[in-house]
Design a protein that fits this description.
The chain is α+β, with helices and mostly antiparallel strands and 281 residues long. Helix content is 16%, strand content 38%. The chain folds into two domains: 146 residues, hypothetical protein PF0899 fold (2-Layer Sandwich); 123 residues, Tumour Suppressor Smad4 (Sandwich), CATH 2.60.200.20.
């Protein structure tokens, strides 16, 4: 019998993710501030009514964990080891969001958490900085963790000569953003475990993890969109043909594309819109 995730399991995994993501500096240690918690649809439905209580107690547990870090261990008191820099609480507080996990093969009780930590800007990164991303997974009772670092570019104006072939402007849960497309094909969607995205969107699960692919033909400069989503993509209000079909229980890519004009408003599941502009128009 499958084991469902409990509220305590979720809080335990958030704490584990925070511990995995600690970043020591010289005078302080930074914890991740943003947590996206992915649950099986059955666990989501069963726990939905107490989500506010879960997130509130998770924040309290994170605060208590930080407080415990400030107490030196016996070894540190005896000066047998160097005391670690104190852990500082995030300036904007703990941000926790619980989302339905739409990955294939997800089981009841599985908990996947993606957290983010904005790293301080350093000279070697120019005017930009980096974001540390921490992923923890409890799948079928087995716990794993991984980390990656993404470069956060400077303001768009500073990238005017980066060879972008298109500009995409949009607003998601993280605010107003601009993406400069500098290669001939990108993947757009929410991303997640086993899903690579070039343009990662912070939005509702209506938007697929890999929602669409945008391709530029180098010979003509024409852009094409391949819809890979569950709930559809529109181009200037017109529905793009789906490239996905299900046959004999298998998901297949038919390699169907739709032409994208030099200027277009691209809708993802009618919940998020991207303003696209080719730089060669």
């Amino acid at each position: 019998m499958d084991r469902a995730a409990t509220a305590r399991d979720i809080i335990h995994e958030i704490l584990r993710n925070m511990r995995e993501g600690l970043e020591p500096l010289h005078y302080s240690t930074l914890p991740p501030a943003i947590y996206h918690v992915y649950l099986h649809p059955g666990d989501m439905e069963r726990l939905r009514g107490i989500f506010p209580r879960i997130t509130d107690e998770a924040r309290r547990a994170l605060d208590a964990e930080l407080e415990s870090f400030r107490k030196p261990s016996i070894a540190e008191k005896l000066k047998l080891s160097k005391q670690s820099p104190p852990v500082s609480a995030p300036e904007g507080g703990w941000q926790i969001r619980i989302i339905e996990n739409t990955d294939d093969g997800v089981e009841p009780g599985d908990i996947v958490i993606h957290s983010e930590l904005a790293m301080p800007a350093k000279a070697e990164f120019g005017a930009g900085s980096m974001t540390k991303r921490i992923s923890t997974r409890r799948l079928a009772g087995a716990e794993t963790a991984s980390q990656s670092y993404d470069t956060v570019p400077a303001a768009p104006a500073a990238a005017a000569n980066d060879g972008a072939c298109a500009i995409i402007e949009y607003q998601d849960a993280g605010g107003r953003k601009t993406y400069r497309m500098t290669k001939d094909q990108i993947v757009v969607g929410r991303g997640g475990r086993d899903y690579w995205t070039d343009l990662k969107l912070e939005t509702l699960p209506d938007v697929s993890r890999e929602h669409f692919r945008l391709r530029r033909d180098p010979a003509t400069g024409q852009f094409f969109l391949k819809d890979l989503s569950r709930l559809g993509t529109t181009i200037n209000g017109e529905k793009a043909p789906s490239s996905i079909e299900f046959a004999e229980g298998e998901k297949r890519d038919r390699n169907v594309e739709a032409a994208v004009p030099a200027r277009a408003r691209i809708g993802l599941a009618e919940v998020l819109f991207l303003d696209f502009r080719s730089t060669s128009e």
